[in-house]
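ok so for the tutorial part 2 we go from a plain amino acid sequence to predicted structure tokens. step 1 is just haveing the sequence, like this:
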Amino acid sequence: MTKGNIEKRYVGSTNEDILDSEKELLHNVSISECRSVSENNLKKHLQGMEIINDAVLISSPMRRCRETCLYLTGREPDMICDGLREMNFGDLEYKNFTELDGNPYYQAYIDSNGEKAFPNGESKQEFTDRTCEAFAELMHELKNDVRPLVLFVHGGTIMALLSKYGVPKKDYFSYQTKPLSGFAGMLSVDYNISITDITGFSLGK
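step 2 — the prediction. this is what the tokens look like for a chain of 205 residues:
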């Protein structure tokens, strides 16, 4: 979590550090203590810290993701993927709901159910295409690697990937998540990329 998260801002290209309190939390948490937020059995995906020791750690280039990886796992990311960065919010970057009240471009975004682009930013479709193209390239690069993958990415990135590759198909916004929360699943790249048995989890209290 960052200062921008606390203030409920649209944090995309702003390269914030995570809060010191979050660093301490991440340093002390065990993935075996994850709290499942669905009826599925999370432990078959996250079996203590062993999965971290064996996994390929992939991160967005933004400091908040790289720091989350480092403080949670004790390791720097194995791979940095620029295409997995958060949506470009354009002229609305780092503004919150109060500051955007009455802004016609923000209202147009709301009225479009999040489909329209912010001025000088990405539309939801452009963002999803960019994110999924980057992920597909990663999967091609790692196609012969049988280790688990752990991605340290943004809320928007998670929504884009799971709305594209999740099975059964669900809406983009159905995968909204909070800081220190995410999803685990079974990834297949045999023919087409798919993610099944998706389970939500939270590291927060």
